Amino acid sequence: MSSLVEYSFEIEKLAQILKFMQAKRVLIQLPNGLKPYASHIEKLLKSMLPNISIFFSGGDAYGPCDIAFDEAKLINADVIVHYGHPALGISSNEIPVIYLPAIVNISPKVDIVINEIRRRGYSNVGISGSIQHVNLISVLADELKKVGINVYIGTRHGFPPGIILGCDYTAALAIDKYVDVHLVVAGGIFHALGLRMITDKEVLAYDPYRNTVISASDEYKRRLALKLKQLLDFDKLDLFGIIICKKVGQFNMHLAIKASELLRDMDRQFLFIVVDDVNPETLGHFTDVDAFVNTCCPRLSIDDIDRFNKPIFSLYDLKVMLKKDISAYSLKLK
């Protein structure tokens, strides 16, 4: 464990909750980045609740919309423990879900952030980030204020201040009109890129693991160019696979029907494809399909543009192509 980043898994709190619930069998769901800590979590939890049976989900956990209900039912779990995301209100009448943030224990390099903001000439900064870095948001806010930078932190009902998801930027948008730039605290550029898709303001990504601050604009422009190329080739496509995801937080038959109506209006053929997870291997078997339409996670049509060898369009893309005008096209989470 010494070589890994330290996280707060709140084992004592979890043990108290499980004891109160009289849980006997638990399924723990971890994002891929937290899976190396599985044995550590089990050891600590077993030390407090020696008679409990612990299982770990081996599947992906992309967000609070992606809860492993099927796996939990399969093993007859009493409860699901979902780490790494805030509660989104998705539940099951059969199996309760405990959401824990897994806050990272890391000190931000504040000088790097301050210097980059000053170099770019910004004075009004909006700060947001993923749930693992909720403590860093307040630390950065305090330090920026000390050097005379105005700081804004938005809220979303049910989330801690400043917390965003890859598909929910309510907290950041609540302060958008007050800021010159958004600063997103998270590993990588995923969250910052998503915010850049729904604001015209500059978005900077602060990665506390690498201690880097970069703009999301370059990656936004690259993905926009790739998407425009797909749209320019749209007339060459005939058969579309409309993807319907089984995940409880991503299943949306209404969008699938709407997609079929849009394709029908464009005189295109289509078929419905129901999947548990959207990946190149699963979709690659449909060799006769020219392109896919995403009705699942809104990020798939943009973030996975490099992963698939066939285009994946959103309903927004279909609406644009129905009008046959991409002159004002921009990447959007729709």
Structural commentary:
The chain is α/β, with parallel strands linked by helices. It folds into 3 domains: 7-104, Rossmann fold (3-Layer(aba) Sandwich), CATH 3.40.50; 110-215, 3-Layer(aba) Sandwich (Rossmann fold); 221-323, Rossmann fold, CATH 3.40.50.11860. The protein is built from 12 helices and 15 strands. It has helices spanning 11-21, 38-48, 69-74, 110-120, 134-146, 170-173, 190-196, 217-232, 253-265, 280-284, 300-303, 315-323; strands at residues 7-8, 25-29, 53-56, 79-83, 97-100, 103-104, 124-129, 150-152, 181-185, 202-207, 212-215, 239-245, 269-275, 291-294, 312-313. The strands form 4 sheets. A 5-stranded mixed beta sheet has the order 8-7-9-10-11, sandwiched between helices. Strand 2 (25-29), helix 2 (38-48) and strand 3 (53-56) form a beta-alpha-beta unit. Helix 1 (11-21) packs across helix 2 (38-48) and helix 9 packs parallel to helix 12. The radius of gyration is 22 Å and the shape is flat. It starts with 6 loop residues before the first strand and ends in an 11-residue tail after the last helix. The relative contact order is 0.10. The model has no long low-confidence stretch (mean pLDDT 92).
Helical stretch tally: 12
| Integer tally of domains | 3
Number of strands: 15
**What proportion of the residues form beta strands (DSSP E)?**
15-25%
**Approximate helicity band:** 25-40%
CATH evolutionary superfamily of the largest domain:
Diphthamide synthesis DPH1/DPH2 domain 2
Q: Any guess at the CATH architecture of the largest domain?
A: 3-Layer(aba) Sandwich
Q: State the CATH class of the largest domain.
A: Alpha Beta
Low-confidence stretches: none
What structural class do helix, strand and pairing data support? alpha/beta
Order of helices and strands: EHEHEHEEEHEHEHEHEEHEHEHEHEH
**CATH overall fold name of the largest domain:** Rossmann fold
* Distance N to C terminus: 40 Å
Largest sheet: 5 strands, mixed
- Spatial arrangement of strands, main beta sheet: 8-7-9-10-11
Report Rg: 22 Å
Shape: flat
